[in-house]
Amino acid sequence: MDCQRKSVIYYDTHEVIRKLSVTTMFTEQKFNIPELKGISAKTVEEHLKLYAGYVKNANSILEKIPEYEGYAKEDTFAPYVVSELHRRFSFEFDGMRNHEYYFSAFERGPTPLTGEGLKKAIEKDFGSFDTWLARFKTVAKTRGIGWAMLYYDKTSSKLLNAWIDEQHLGHLTGLSPILALDMWEHSFVADYQPSGKGMYIDDFFENLNWSMIEKNFVSAC
After folding, report:
1. Which residues form the Manganese/iron superoxide dismutase C-terminal domain (predicted)?
2. Which of 19, 99, 113, 199 is surrounded by the most beta carbons within 10 Å?
3. Do 129 and 215 reside in the same domain of the chain?
């Protein structure tokens, strides 16, 4: 499938959060994750608990924002609390969504990249799959805690790699995530030790169900 260019609509973040706080609660997703190469079931179990925490915290913030807004006339400090809640929301929300991309890529076990759409797009933008893979792995080895991400930009019809600090710093505005690799220590240290980061990255790709990633690409087009 070839991607067709579509318009991107940008929203005022505070207005979106205000509406979400009244109408929306986020739901913890369940993932069908089989036994993985290198990544233990215990690590997956503990990692899923952390993901659940992001969902819980995102919902909690949405509940608290209207409450503290109601204090604004009585407490001059309340607006500062509301501002901090908005800042923290981006961390919790992106932590939730990043993990959903991460875990969904493992569902139902590994399959090769056979779909023509994503494969052709990678070859067009990077020359070959192997070239893209080498560059993505280099991004994943960036020092610090964060994520290696593959994005699709509708405006330029282009795939781009990026490093995200923590959960929310450095996301490419208006672009759709296609693949997310968690490089926080909790995702690999118990199984690989700190010196085994490269092995974890290699095994991550051995465990991928590329049909799930292809779906992300199709949805982004």
Report:
1. 117-216
2. 99
3. yes
Ligand-binding site membership of 186 (annotated): yes
Q: Is residue 34 part of a domain?
A: no
Weakly modelled stretches of the chain, pLDDT under 50: 5-13, 16, 21-22
* Residue 69 CB neighbour total at 10 angstroms: 16
Residue 89 sits in the same domain as residue 168: no
Residues 71, 139 share a domain: no
- Pick from 206, 221, 204, 205: which is nearest to 117 by CA? 221
Domain that holds residue 93: 13-23+39-104
128 and 61 share one domain = no
The closest alpha carbon to 57, from 27, 97, 92, belongs to 92
In whole angstroms, give the CA distance from residue 28 to residue 54: 9
In this prediction, residue 66 carries a pLDDT of 77
Residues near 212 by Cβ (< 8 Å), separated by ≥ 6? 104, 105, 107, 108
Instruction: Give the CATH number of the domain where residue 158 resides.
Output: 3.55.40.20
Check whether residue 95 and residue 137 sit in a common domain: no
What is the model's pLDDT at position 5? 43
182 is in an annotated binding site: yes
User: Can you give the pLDDT at residue 169?
Assistant: 85
Q: Taking CA 185 as the corner, what is the angle to CA 220 and CA 53, rounded to the nearest 5 degrees?
A: 65
Tokens standing for residue 200: 């974890």
State the pTM of this model. Answer: 0.85
- pLDDT on residue 87: 86
Query: Based on the domain organization, do 83 and 60 belong to the same domain?
Result: yes
